[in-house]
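User: hey, got a sec? need HMA domain-containing protein folded
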Amino acid sequence: MPQYKYTVAMSCSGCSNAVNRALNKLEGVEKVDIDLEKQLVVVDATVPQEKVLETITKTGKAVTPIA
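Assistant: Yep! Here you go:
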């Protein structure tokens, strides 16, 4: 299963919770790991990376994929 990593600008647990909720609603997402301190989001999903990126962007956070 593909694993995608992103740097996401999150300043509090409310921010990370918003990203977590949005990703867990996305069909095809199996696992979400968020490290608020490192501003890192790791997603295991069967959906395309673009769809995951779009979902995080919709939360209003600045997001950058990590290659």
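Quick note: The beta strands are 3-8, 29-35, 40-45, 63-66. Let me know if you need anything else on HMA domain-containing protein.
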